């Protein structure tokens, strides 16, 4: 099987590329513009494989997308390319409208033209997996869960742009019959995540004994899923997902931001002891505008219909992740070098 992955040099995309090439024996064509969030060294384990190809392209460029489809003739596409950082969407929404909305539209149109030219068996096999977030659903009260039919109420420019792209993707199924499947997932964590997001930023600051910023009172709740479990779910969609349907993925691991930061302190203290407990470095900072209180996923449809489940608890995954950042200094020093410095720009992250 030959899979076109967009955004494959990013955090989740690189996990999808590694898993497709190494575990599934698939051919992978990675199309990525290489923005600040990309890190080609996350693909080191598959670089050099005959089954892995890279194309530096912008998904907003229609001619380039036609070229990619016609040259590589993929059996399916997993679309992850996006601007993904909420705080950046607040200070500079234009790139989010461009890539997340116009880029997705451009890709859908290129995919539609390609799909219409496929043979009947090729069409039967073809899938367009559109990867999205639970943030499209907005904020939850204490006792509810996001289900696939939960109405969209996005709060940030990021989530609004993702919501728009989800609607476009499903409209291309309803109107043109393009076999689109939409996935909405909770916050991901794990190795190779750019250190502007909450977990890697906190781990690195804890390693370097820098202040550990927490928005507001730290009581905002997110559900966390290990990136490799998410990648496995997306790949399952290629075979088991039903065109025109939405699937929620989540880790059944709701934690407040303060809990997450506190747990990271304790794991870093255990694996990399220092003179003082890291918890003492937690610093509360003014809240993000429009900060949603709680996200929580009901992933029972994915459990039932795809046979998919997360394979690790949050505690196991977090300990593995801290251990990975401790042994991967070269990777994160490169990611942090010059291009982006979260502490200098005063940006935080809760995804
Ligand atoms: P990321 O920011 O780590 O990576 C995004 C990748 O897309 C980068 O490699 C970047 O270079 C590429 N890209 C950006 N604009 C592009 C363009 N115009 N053309 C081609 N490539 C472009 O993001 P991520 O965290 O890996 O998220 C991937 C997808 O999953 C996004 O669609 C995001 O909305 C969704 N998602 C993320 C999370 C999460 O917790 N990170 C959770 C749910 C859903």
Characterization of this structure:
The protein has a domain of 234 residues: 3-Layer(aba) Sandwich (Rossmann fold). 43% of the residues lie in helices and 16% in strands. It has 13 helices and 12 strands. A 7-stranded parallel beta sheet has the order 3-2-1-4-5-6-10, sandwiched between helices. Strands 7-9-11 form a 3-stranded mixed beta sheet. α4 runs parallel beside α6. The site of nicotinamide-adenine-dinucleotide has 32 residues, from α1, α4, β5 and β7. Belongs to the NAD(P)-dependent epimerase/dehydratase family. dTDP-glucose dehydratase subfamily. GO terms for molecular function: dTDP-glucose 4,6-dehydratase activity. It catalyses: dTDP-alpha-D-glucose = dTDP-4-dehydro-6-deoxy-alpha-D-glucose + H2O. One of its GO terms (biological process) is nucleotide-sugar metabolic process.
Characteristic terms for this protein:
351 residues; alpha/beta; Rossmann fold; seven-stranded parallel sheet; 13 helices; 12 strands; disordered C terminus; binds nicotinamide-adenine-dinucleotide
Topology overview:
Elements: E1 2-6, H1 11-23, E2 27-32, E3 52-56, H2 62-72, E4 76-79, H3 86-91, H4 94-116, H5 120-125, E5 127-133, H6 157-176, E6 180-185, E7 187-189, H7 198-207, E8 212-215, E9 221-226, H8 227-240, E10 246-249, E11 254-256, H9 257-271, E12 282-285, H10 300-306, H11 314-327, H12 329-336, H13 342-345
Parallel strand pairs: 1-2, 1-4, 2-3, 4-5, 5-6, 6-10, 7-9, 8-12
Antiparallel strand pairs: 9-11
This protein binds nicotinamide-adenine-dinucleotide (NAD).
